[in-house]
Write a structure and sequence with these properties.
The chain has one helix and nine strands; from the N terminus they run H-E-E-E-E-E-E-E-E-E. It has about 190 residues and is mostly beta strands.
Length: about 190
């Protein structure tokens, strides 16, 4: 009985769902969850943390798009940054160029991306000079699945290498963060 229902559902979805990823239009907006895992110790030392992001994407050819996004995650300190909780990692704006791997796009739409962004780290629960601002590079892979012609869900993994300046006075200091971001989103295309 389950196999019969599965076959019928497959037949119905093949009739009504899109067969091409670019079936609707070139624009999309999305919102989703993001979590950062830090792959190297730095200052501040941060535990993995959850957050969210939103983006606007313009697909200007079948294999290329440009995405602008903003993200924020919250982290607690660890190691030498222990007990410094509520530190925010912010990316505003980030800019990515996506390259779609399949030229004959289907409901499954895998891509690679490369980009850059402006990043900031906020002061946590301790006043210890955690605040920093800088620029970083992004490199990642992702996959979108078109549920309908206009609605898609997606997953991505993005490695970020961020150089930060945490003071501008005498003896100015710089630091770096190396988060690996795991993202899940839902997007609307028109």
């Amino acid at each position: 009985m389950k196999l019969k229902a599965f076959i019928i559902l497959g037949f119905i979805s093949a009739m009504f769902l899109p067969t091409k990823a670019e079936a609707v239009g070139n624009y999309s907006v999305g919102v989703g969850a993001v979590g950062n895992i830090y792959v190297a110790n730095s200052s501040p030392e941060l535990n993995p943390g959850p957050g969210g992001y939103f983006y606007f994407d313009y697909r200007w050819s079948p294999q290329f798009s440009t995405q602008f996004s903003a993200l924020i995650t919250t982290h607690d300190g660890t190691g030498r940054s222990a007990n410094d909780d509520g530190i925010l990692f912010i990316g505003l704006p980030t800019f990515d160029l996506k390259f779609y791997l399949l030229s004959d796009a289907s409901r499954w739409d895998p891509y690679g991306l490369i980009g850059m962004g402006v990043y900031a780290v906020s002061e946590g629960s301790k006043t210890d000079g955690t605040t920093a601002v800088g620029v970083g590079a992004n490199l990642g892979l992702g996959l979108d699945y078109y549920v309908t012609e206009q609605l898609a869900v997606g997953f991505a993994g993005i490695y970020r290498s961020v150089g930060l300046i945490d003071s501008t006075g005498p003896g100015s200091n710089g630091t770096a963060l190396f988060p690996f971001s795991l993202l899940a989103n839902v997007s609307w295309h028109w």
